[in-house]
Amino acid sequence: MSRHDSAPPSRRTAIIATVIVVALVAGVLLVRLGQGSRPSDDGNETPSAAEAPRPTVPAGVAGPAGDAAGVPVGFSADEPGAVAAAVAYATASQRWLYFTDEEIEAAIAEIATPVAASRLAEDVVADVSMAREQLAQSSGRIWWLVRPLAWRVDDYRDTEARVSVWTVTILSAASVAAPQSEFLTVTLDLSWVDGDWRVDGVRDTPGPTPITGPKDQPWDAEPFDSALDGFTRMDGEPVS
Question: How do residues 103-115 score in pLDDT, each as one tens digit?
């Protein structure tokens, strides 16, 4: 069986894929740097979902100590804990696609600062809803993977941290999105609030992006999916 179609992915399919990736990457990034500390329009801060106690982090463990609303929570109040939180939050959109709007709102309330949570949830729900609608038109399985590759601590203080995470996003959906990858460096500003590290601001920069191997060629979505038949994702989540 040939691993590639005879023709490259259509331009229309590639454009749709790009639109979906942009929407879902917006879900990864939550909010641009500098917006996280801005108060809401009515001057009232949205209460965080973290009024419930966080799971206890064992000594010597960075976290997460558990899940809340379907996302990792419970990180240690030190630099390793900030790194673990940044890596988890930078790839949070891995789960957004499979959440309902209400589940996204609850999840963001768990990982964002109280000031930012309401606005972030509204933005992410809008972006993911658009992507979900497009991907629902796929005639096959949807491969949506967001993975961390490396991290760097840019700044750390007792209650604030800035961590950059190098990530890769992979998307493929038959009839909708040609297989593609996007490499980003996601820089997160974190604040220690209500007993955990929470997202206060984010920015991203493209790359660094490697080229494909010299023996590889672009794949179309159908052979891409067929080649992965029988594979299980590393996180154990089912493929849509």
Answer: 999 999 999 999 8
CA–CA separation, 120 vs 49, rounded Å?
14
Nearest-angstrom CA–CA distance, 130 and 155: 35
Q: Please tell me what DSSP assigns to residue 8.
A: P
Q: Which of 226, 233, 239 is nearest to 4 (CA)?
A: 226
Q: Nearest Cα to 174, choosing from 143, 145, 139, 144?
A: 139
Q: Is 45 exposed, middle or buried (0-12, 13-18, 19+ CB in 10 A)?
A: middle
Say if residue 47 is preceded by a cis peptide, omega within 30 of 0: no
Q: What are the two backbone dihedrals, phi and then psi, of residue 192, each rounded to the nearest 5 degrees?
A: -85, 105
Residue type, 237: E
Respond yes or no on whether the N-terminal peptide bond of residue 214 is cis (omega within 30° of 0). Answer: no
Using the CB atoms, write b or e for 172-192: b if 16+ within 10 Å. Answer: bbbebbbbbebebbbbbbbbb
Q: Which of 127, 133, 89, 131 is nearest to 107 (CA)?
A: 89
At 165 the pLDDT is 97
187 alpha-carbon distance from chain centroid:
13
Q: What is the DSSP annotation of 77-126?
A: SSHHHHHHHHHHHHTTHHHHTTS-HHHHHHHHHHHB-HHHHHHHHHHHHH
Query: Which residue matches tokens 């179609």?
Result: 5
Q: What is the pLDDT of residue 51?
A: 57
Q: Is the pTM of this model over 0.70?
A: yes
